Amino acid sequence: MRKISIVAAIVLFILIVASSVYVVRWRTQNDLSQAQQDSLLLADIPPPIPPAMLYGFIEDSFQIKTFKVARNQNLAEMLLRQNVDYQIINTLAEKSREVFDVRHIRVGNPYSVFYSRDTLMTPLWLVYEIDNIDYLVMQLTDSLNVFRDQKVVSYERRRGMGVIESSLWNTITENNLNPMLAIELSEIYAWTVDFFGIEKGDYFKVVYDESFVDSVSVGIESIHAAYFMHKGRPYYAFRYQQDSLWSFFDEAGNSLRKAFLKAPLKFSRISSRFSNSRFHPVLKIYRAHHGVDYAAPSGTPVYALGDGTITRRGWDPKGGGNYIKIRHNSVYTTEYMHLSGFAKGLHQGDFVRQSDLIGYVGKTGLATGPHLDFRVFKNGKAIDPLKMEAPPVKPIDSVAMASYIEFIRPLKEELDAIVDTEDDLEAVDDSIAVQVMQE
Question: Are 435 and 171 in contact (CB under 8 A)?
Fold first, then answer.
């Protein structure tokens, strides 16, 4: 009997444990099922739609009208039309000085007025777009706050390539690439590629970031790497920071820029500086003098400031006497005036190297004494030669070369992946082929 009782007790214990396990499993399954049902119910509820925003304001909170600055229209004119008190306008103009000079409001730029939603339509805020990104906000009531802000800018990594048919600009614009790419590439390669001598069949590849506001392109944020095949010679360019300065270097770590000489001759003194109004010693009138006069004895040798092509050699009927003009690249041109003579065998169209002899100091033309009138033009505009910034020419430091090579490795691979060989270029259907790939 005792054995039977023990067996019965064990069986009863097993039944109790089994039933407990069953109850726990049943409850767990029901709990999970309920949680899953709750999850499904929540999934059916759509997330709240964020309110539409404009310049940081909730659009539904206002009545909004957008205008464009008309000719001869200033801040006062814009706000007087909105029945804003002149004293308020004066206060806003004063407050805005620290963030934006309202005298620089431009014709054609858009501005928006935010009104109250009642029938009075009281003007509450004015927002003026300074450019594609920056805007000025003015509160027209209460504390009359004035501040400057920016639209949300997004950046897209892009890759592009193109085959030159006529010019870099045409290749880019005709294929719907951002025109700023032409300017950026021209500046990067200004010292290595002669864009006036660009040839059909030259081609480029580029990796860059383009900036967008409201899905509209507003410019090139930065070019990371580029490749230019010019007259059968390849030129790589990689953007890299050295000594806190960003510049472009080739695959061997050499700078893509070259330096000019400090001056085109050995001189005793500067007799006249760059000026927009100088009293002319011969004409006895005030007029612009967009150069630097170096006083030196007649016959003093004059040298080319840098590598370039002679575009003019002859007599200047406007008073410059014998002169030479040299185009160094697509950005810089230099001019040398009042020469007594030219270097032997030098003609228009010749290519000269930096420090090559090109002529001799004289006093031909409108000059009272021997001197060199030296001028520098950047993008066709005269600049002060004494204030011209010498481009960096320092290569990558030897201690940083390993890091530089590692840095440019993926960029070079990305460039090479766009088009590997010239045969690939010829396989493109169009004679001018530009591809833009967005990651």
Answer: no
Q: 267-278: per-residue pLDDT in tens? A: 667 877 766 555
Cα–Cα distance for residue pair 318/19, rounded to 1 Å: 113
154-259+411-438 has which fold? Answer: Nuclear Transport Factor 2; Chain: A, (3.10.450)
Identify the residue with better confidence: 240 or 190. 240
Q: Which fold has domain 269-387?
A: Glucose Permease (Domain IIA) (2.70.70)
Whether the predicted pLDDT of 217 surpasses 50: yes
DSSP assignment of 145-200, as one string? -EEEEE---EEEEEEEEEE-SS-HHHHHHTTT--THHHHHHHHHTTTT--TTS--T
pLDDT at 373 over 70: yes
> pLDDT for 117-144, tens place per residue?
999 999 999 999 999 899 999 999 999 9
Distance of CA 264 to the CA centre of its chain: 32
Cα R_g (the chain), whole angstroms:
36
Q: How many CB atoms lie within 10 A of CB 299?
A: 11
> What residue ranges do the domains of the chain occupy?
53-150, 154-259+411-438, 269-387
Distance from C-alpha of 406 to C-alpha of 423, rounded to nearest angstrom: 29
Residue 369 in tokens = 């004494």
Alpha-carbon distance of 431 to 417, in angstroms, equals: 20
What is the torsional sign of CA 265, 270, 273, 277?
negative
